[in-house]
Amino acid sequence: MEAIGLFDGLTDEERAIANAALKPYVIGAGEELLREGEADRSLLIVVDGELMISLGDVELGRVGVGDVVGEMALFGTFDRRSATVTSTVGPTRLLILDEDALRFLRVQANPMVRNLEAFALTSLFARVQAMEGRIAGMLDPEPIPTPSLLGRLAGVFGLPPAPEVVAVLRLVPGFASRDAGILGKLASRLTLNAIPKGRAVTSRGEDTTDAFMVATGSFGVWHPGPEDYPTLSATLAPGQLCGRVGSAMETVSICTTVALEPSWVVTFPAEVTQELEADATPEAVAYRRGMIDALATQLRLMNEQFLATVLRSAEPA
Fold it and tell me: Strand, helix or coil at 221?
């Protein structure tokens, strides 16, 4: 699967080992491959065909050639499937990487694991943003707050004490399980920034290169809704992410993210995250796996919010 850079940087020997770890699988149209709630840790790469992802009776989306399904289960801390996956066409050809094969590749320090983790970061965040956009399209418009000068000045008051970056990272289970020394090295490469109430950390249409993790406080996310009016599609809590997560993401922001109260964020500078996506150091591994877990949690919440929104819209007036 060269399209997602699966074998980038691998020697011939490493490529052969990685190929052997991937199990080919073929299913017909309309077959259920994974079921919501079942215990399973495996990742699927679509070689040919299409898969539909659903929650309850509601379709969440579809994936095709070169896409990956299951990174939340394989790389995250959840051991249950968060959605049902069904083939829409036949034959659909897949490559499967299960937990045992992943463990073997990690022992071998095979670079394919790093490539998959980097791809999972970009893929998961793109899916979070896409789901926020879908939710926005179903809600009533809500203006983005634009505080007056007096309001902006007042927005700096009430700021809680600055938290420790390591303590913020530990809000995410994927980081919390890491060695304190490794987390400390990772934290030393990040910055902590105070954000007054009403200030935006991302603005729709503007270049966004850094990623942000909410440390304290909360942020509203505005996407264009019906007739392009801004709609509040999500509220971010500590441990959740915005900005540009994954070096393959577009640099132009598709949403506006504004502090709803005096808040702190941990900033992941673009030059640092690009290095961490490619490195094999312990702090780079901790970064990729922790961020995948944070995004997996965020996407689960967005999927559940989307399902609830769909069900509410279907209720009789």
Answer: strand
Q: How far is CA 149 from CA 9, 42, 152, in A?
A: 52, 52, 5
Q: What pTM was estimated for this model as a whole?
A: 0.91
Share of the chain above pLDDT 90, in %: 73
Distance CA 271, CA 79 (A): 33
Q: How far apart are CA 123 and CA 131, in angstroms?
A: 12
| pLDDT tens, residue by residue, 12-46 | 999 999 999 999 999 999 999 999 988 888 999 99
Q: Where are the extended beta strands (E) located within 227-291?
A: 230-236, 241-243, 256-259, 263-268
* Closest by Cα among 89, 100, 90, 92 to 43: 100
DSSP-assigned letter for residue 22: S
What domains sit in the chain, N to C, each tagged with a CATH number?
Answer: 2-109 (2.60.120.10), 142-314 (2.60.120.10)
21's enclosing H/E stretch is helix 12-21
Neighbour tally for 73: CB within 10 Å = 24
* pLDDT tens track for 268-303: 999 999 999 989 999 999 999 999 999 999 999 999
Q: 111-136 and 99-107 are packed helices; what angle lies between their axes, rounded to 10 degrees? A: 130
Reported as a single tens digit per residue, the pLDDT across 91-144 is: 999 999 999 999 999 999 999 999 999 988 988 999 999 999 999 999 999 999
| Other Cβ atoms closer than 10 A to 189 | 17
